Amino acid sequence: MWFILIFTSFYLHEESKDIRFNHLSVKNGLSQSTVNTIIQDKFGFIWIGTQDKLNRFDGYQFEKFSTNPFDSTTISSNVVTDLHEDRFGELWVGTDNGLNLYDRKNKQFIRIRLPDNSRQAITKVTSVEKRIFFSTQDSGTYEIDRETLNASRIKGMTEAKRSYLIFSDEETLWFNSRGGILIFNSKTSESHLTLENHYAFCMLKGDNNSIWIGGTKGRFYRYDKDLNVFQNYKIPQFTRDNVEILSIVDKGSELWLFTYRHSLFVFDKKTEKIVQKNILDAGDKINESFYTAFKDDTGVIWTGTHASGVLYYNPYNIVFEHIGTSKQVHTGSEQSIVWFITSYNPQHILFSTADRNYLYTKYKKSIQTIPHIPNYGRGTLGYYVLYRGSSGNIYSSIFGKGLAKYNIVENTFTPLSKEMDRVKYIRGLTEDDSGNLYAYSENSSTIYYFNFSENKTHSFKIKGIKFRTIYDLFYDTSDVQEPLLWISTGSKGAIRYSINDSSFVNYQHDSFNPRSLSSNFVSLIRRDSRGLYWVATSAGLNILNSKNEAIYHFSERNGLPNNTINGILEDNYSNMWLSTNMGIAKVNVLEHKKNVKLRFTGFTYKDGLKNIEYANPSFYKDDAGILYFGGANGIDVIDPSKVKTSPYNPKTLITGVLTDKKKYRLPDCTEAIQLNPSTEVIEFEYVSLNYTALKSPRYAYRLVGFDKDWVYAGKKRSVRYTNLSPGNYTFEVKSLNSNGIWNKSVAQITLQIIPPFWKTLPFFVLVSGLLFSAIVIAIRRQKANRKYLEYKIDERTHELKIKNKQLHVANEEIKRQSHRIQAINDYLENTLEKLNDTTKFKDSMVEMIAHDIKNPLNTILTLSEEPISKEATRTVYYSANQILNLVLNLLETHKYNNGQFSIERKVVSLRQIIDSSIKQVSLLVEQKCIRISCDVDEQLSTFCDSEIITRVIVNLLTNAIKYSEYGGEIDISCKIVREGYLEVSVKDYGLGIPEDKLKDIFSKYTQINKRSIGSIRSTGIGLTFCHIALEAHNHSIWVQSKENDGTCFTFGLDLSEEESSYKSPQKMDLSSKNPIHLLDNQEFESYLTTLKKLDVYDSSDIIHILTKLKELDDSGLDEWCKNIESAVYNSDQDTYKKLLNLISEMNV
């Protein structure tokens, strides 16, 4: 096969930079410092072959494998020469004493023997598809049969013993031979020589179907498989020296060439420039002789060295720069602390310590000490404040010398004003949007304001709040309409001061408010691009959301390196950086709208920082976005643009299960683990294989079947359980990735704790059988005993039955007597209670009836002493009629209570009922000059008991007259509410009824009690009768009243659509004889004679005689008696006489 060799010339680029690697040595647990080979297996573990033992690294610790001459299952030698993992995940280990296959399941090694049973040093192990090949130091190259694990020489190699396998690509094997590089086809067994007289140490598959080859004398090649062309590169100044390129790593646009004794060269594929790099381990130079190197699946480059262990390069490492060395700045003392940092111009950084100022030149990386100003003198503390305004001017203050404009070129101070010059201990400055300065001084609450347009200094204090010390001022221009000044105090928290109206809001700590500041000591406040305010307190970081005034707390428990924060800066990528008393923290804001969630990444001197504790306010961000943090050891510089976040989601693996009796190594063993019941302690070990992580990841685990939810373990990489109950469990573990998100992939292992034999099924069956046999025997014995016992029981039972029967009879008799006694007691108690109630009722009733009868009787007695006149007779009649109405009410109420009350309904004229009622109370109306208006249609008729309803209206009118003032008014109205139903209302405008009395006014018992409104007293029996009468009509009555505003009683009646059949006695056809059936009874004649002797005003005698007549049981006579009663009630003497004459004529 022919090929083309193209020579390309290039030059060694002058640029030479340091590359920082992480270092793993014997101190970290590596078995030996000379590393021959490194690979990464399918699980993510790093396997390292050294001159003394094989190592497996999980990012935290090393597991070592060594040979045991008395155990053939161990590795054949401690000198590991090569490692290879094939496509099936099988790990092949080459040593100086043969080849080994690692049995992951049993944690053992299988030793591969050569045909002659010799032990040869293995130089290379590789695979082509399913086939495994390896070369030896002296016996050539072999292939292994996977099934038998027997080795045999490959056929077709003409110079097999003198060729060394270096690389495999698809079907092709590449060898070093004496004449050059030999290419062998593993399928056809054909071979040919290429790159004659050249020697290759390493080969790497590149992009675009190419292969990179590292050789001697600084030569390396690129082979284009498509064009069959080799392109030759070399390093000119190393041509004469034997520079051996032992390993190549492809980094995309760059090629990293690892050499023996000549460190690392980086080749730019595009420009073909090459740069030699100095490899540093945390700033210290190390041995630069490399044997091997490779890039893992996360982008980390691992390299094995001669006598320097393992170096690995993390592309996501943060490279910290530093300003100040022990020779340039006197570090380590109190006067060497960098207090203030600012920029003089884009190329120079100005910073100050307690005794001098310094100027740092970026491109030269040099520091110049600025001499003291003669006019100001050195003093004890020297320069203090440095501040660069928006105009570009530098302002500085020397303790005891006020504030001045600083000319760095001339090294002079120009005082701003006499007033400001008197302020001797200025601690800090800030400026407004016009460039005017705000300043604060040592141990003072006074704020100084220098206005450049006025060239004048003003001073003020916050009125309404007292505090002693200001620790920081921050001018907030987020709201153009209302500029704010944030004041950090040492005792009163944070103050938000309005420049426009001098109003302020004070944020302080409140132990009862979890959303208040965590401490009243506030040292610093800054606002980020999201509108969040970052408040540094003595108890950690507080985030204030100005939109909802919510405050969120973060401390060391949340990942903050230290609770004391000395500097706050936001980079150009919206990440926050905090300097603390324990390093620097990078803060990613994960959420800030509804809630605030932060992720902290801490850095210390172990990560390349020179300071541990930082000064406040020694922090600065220049125009290029570079961050500066000062402390006792100079300034640490961070370029956020070079800070990258790893996109890699790490694998989380369970590495071991430890019990008190055995250790199970994982993840090679993935089968369920069975444990005996005597196992008391189970410990799970796990790891996150994330070599790009800047800090140790956090874990969460759970034991399904025991833990209800995930347990967050922090950085802890193991968990122990004790005394688990027998059963099946699944242990699960997950970890956080570099973006602070929990990985979806979860590592798990199944665990089964076998129950003890006494809880197993066979034991249960055995015990059940024995128990069953014992039960059968016991039953048989029990049957024999039962027969005897039954006889004795029957005998005894018979005796007990006789005694129980006797006892039962006696008990029943006792119960009967007890029930009788109890019934008698209950009867006596109820009777006594009723007698007491009756007595009370009687006393109350007698008192009230006596009162109601007394007035009309007094009237009658008074008139009886005077000559009888017609008016006096009328008054006597009305008084007697009033007593009669009261008695009838009492009688009807009594009948209702005894269930004897009944009504006789008929169709009557409602207007006639009302007119009759008004006529009965006419005397009372005249006495009080009451005007009664009636708005009721004369044609309106109702279906009711007219006498009962007449008494209802009379009672309501009487009640209305009593409570009306002299000359008052009473309205009677009626309205048809719906078909077949109407409502009648009687309204007065008198004293009214108290609201608390309304609910009981119709009560059958409570209203019997006398009630008094002013001088008016009444039994209330009339209203009780009204309620009873309307209830008998299946209707109700209700009242509306308000004190001093009158009372309105309303009740319902049935409406009749027929013509009213009622005719007044005045219009009665007295010639008609149809209604009355005459009786041939001398008793009737006697009653009639008596009635003729009486006047209509002798109502009681007339009613008594009518009652006797009704007992004669004559329907026609009943109608005539009712007409007589109506005439008596209406005091109608003419009708009364006509009715008597009518019955006399009919009896002739």
Keywords:
1148 residues, alpha+beta, 9-stranded mixed β-sheet, 7-stranded mixed β-sheet, 12 helices, elongated
Write structural notes for this entry.
There is one protein chain. With 1148 residues, this protein is of the alpha+beta class. The protein has twelve helices and 76 strands. The strands form 17 sheets. Strands 2, 23, 24, 25, 26, 27, 28, 29 and 30 form a nine-stranded mixed sheet that branches. The chain is elongated and about 170 Å long.
List the helices and strands and how they pair.
Layout: E1 4-7, E2 18-24, E3 35-40, E4 46-50, E5 54-57, E6 62-65, E7 80-85, E8 91-95, E9 98-103, E10 108-112, E11 122-128, E12 131-136, E13 141-144, E14 151-153, E15 164-169, E16 172-177, E17 180-185, E18 191-194, E19 200-206, E20 210-215, E21 219-224, E22 229-234, E23 245-250, E24 254-259, E25 264-268, E26 274-281, E27 284-285, E28 290-295, E29 301-305, E30 310-313, E31 321-323, E32 340-345, E33 348-352, E34 357-361, E35 366-370, E36 383-388, E37 394-398, E38 403-407, E39 412-415, H1 418-421, E40 426-431, E41 437-441, E42 447-451, E43 456-460, E44 470-476, E45 484-489, E46 494-498, E47 504-507, E48 522-527, E49 532-537, E50 540-545, E51 550-554, E52 565-570, E53 576-580, E54 583-591, E55 597-603, E56 614-621, E57 627-631, E58 634-638, E59 651-659, E60 663-665, E61 673-675, E62 681-689, E63 699-704, E64 711-714, E65 718-722, E66 727-735, E67 747-753, H2 761-864, H3 870-897, E68 906-909, H4 910-920, H5 922-927, E69 931-935, E70 941-944, H6 946-962, E71 969-978, E72 981-988, H7 995-998, E73 1011-1013, ...
Helix pairs in contact: 2-3, 3-8, 4-6, 6-8, 9-10, 10-11, 11-12
